[in-house]
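@channel sequence for tomorrow's demo:
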Amino acid sequence: MNEPDHVVNTLAAAATVQLLPADGTGRDFWGSGFFIAPGWVLTCAHVLRPHLPAGPGGCLAVRGDGFNDGIPAPAEVVAWQLAEKEGASIPPERDLALVRLLDRETDHECVWFTDRDVRPMHTVVVHGYRPDPQAAPGGGPVSFVAKAGINVLSGDHGLVIEPGAEYPKGVSGGPLLDPFTGEVVGLIKSRRKDKEGGLAIAAGALRGFGDRYREVMAAHDRWHAARTGHHTWTARQPSPGPAGTGGWTPRDRREALGLLAALPGPATGGPVAAVARQAAGGDLLPPARTVLRSWRDGHGLLYDGEQPLDPLVHLRYLRLAAQYAGARGGGTAPLSDWIDRRLEQVAEPLHHELVTGVRLPAALLPDPVRPERIVLPYPGPKEGPVVTVVMEPLHDDPALVEWTIHLFNGEGGSEQVGAYEGPAPRTDAAWHNHQTLRRRLHEVLHAEDPDAAHPLPVEIALPLSRFDTPVHRWQLQDAAPLGGLTQLGAQRRLVVRDLGRRGQWRGEAGWESRWQSTAEAQQLTVARIPEPGTAQRPAYYETLPPGAVPVLCRPAGRGAGSAAMELTLRAGHGIALWDIAGRAGHSCGPYCDELRTRVQTLFDGVGRTAELPDRLRHLREDIDQRHPGTQWPEPLMLLYDDPGRPLPTDDEHTLDSP
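structure tokens (generated this afternoon):
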């Protein structure tokens, strides 16, 4: 098969776009790209670097003959793989960039991007755009399609295009369509100097984006899973193996990948490879040439042998992935139900046991939770006592705070049980301020704790400018008990509240309704703040779905983080997390994506929102300086601002909470 299916070829052309300056003028055409997922365009970094040297955050326009009626759409460079001091010759694995539309609702076609390693032994079809040779000087680009033969690898991710093919300027960044499988297997990188042949980038290089890759490909798989009918990628793709053998079909693959995209994935590729090997029987799988990042990659590894594997192998893989996610609190019912339905198509009932009897190895099971560890829900109004510390900076000396300690008795009332009265003579005022607060808070907690197994929760009310105060690191005792935890955030459910809401009617800005809808959500999900891909808009924060919790990968009290947190509070959000040790700049790095992935794992284990403060405490309790992987939650702060328990005002000593 040397010619691509005409429908697939048309879909590839519709997903291919040209990249332009932000004003959308075609005469300044930069190069090509293609939609890999809803709102996401993949292209070469060298296409963008001459025009947007600052990289991520730069603005441009995206236009295509089959997109948005040919009208350019605004977009932003979200990530690229270029090193900080990249030379003129860019290695294939770093010559990648991800661009995102600013309007996420714009409809468009998406390519089917392979989940496999690429074996360079056949013909591909190149799509892209080039300047129109018939147009007047400065005229706009036109679409370009050509065949290319790929017969050798260059390094881990380069695909050498054999001589005989000539590519005009502007095609770089366009997709490579495999006519044998009907999937996109890479993108064109460069022409040769002699104008014959060139170099392309294999699909596996995209995995270098790490967590961003997982995000984009999960969106890709969900998008294709929702597509039905005869004029779709999977409807026109050939089944591997001889026709009529009952093998694993493109439709099976589409539905399986869509369901896998809903599972929380492992933090590393090790479990993916282990699950794939167990599903296939160990030695039947070829070695992976590129790192495995997600369940999708392990699924693709099952295709990469000399012969297509039996559907039972794929079903075993899916069941093992579901067991891995389920053991860590992930929801697996839709995938498990689909596996059972697909298993009904296997004619021999005795073979069903090969799937239903598969079990995850002990090495892939999570460490057992200590039986004595229980999750203490955070009490709502009239559900139990809470200690609240209100800290307000003094206007004449910002280094000092005027603090008060309040005990909510769990029956609707509160009383002030401590207050700052000024420094003693001849002392360091700030030091004395903190020491008296520390001692008084310890006294209150020691006196009011019901028992050692149920320590009272503590909430600290701070103004936004002080949200990064490391209150979780406070040590209330001069000498901690032998072998005991010393930091307040590891000892107790500790949360931050917004002092700016003191005296505010809880219905303002939808605070109460937002709190209620979040509490009723079936699943908490990470909502990235600041808003990615555009200038900050209040509407983004106001329209987040009920279970979306804003997560900030940087300090909340200054810079871009402060603006994002202010919009979060203004939109009525009562729950948010942020990293007081993160970078205060505007750009994100790999750590930011890793943090959000870890926080989502935390959310996946939360049965209801009231568990969140204690589950975070458990993570802090498990921090071990000898194991860096346990230390990520240390700088996290949690806003947990229940509108049903209003903060005491300046002149209040007793408060009846409705």
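heads up for whoever presents: Residues 652-658 have pLDDT under 50 and may be disordered.
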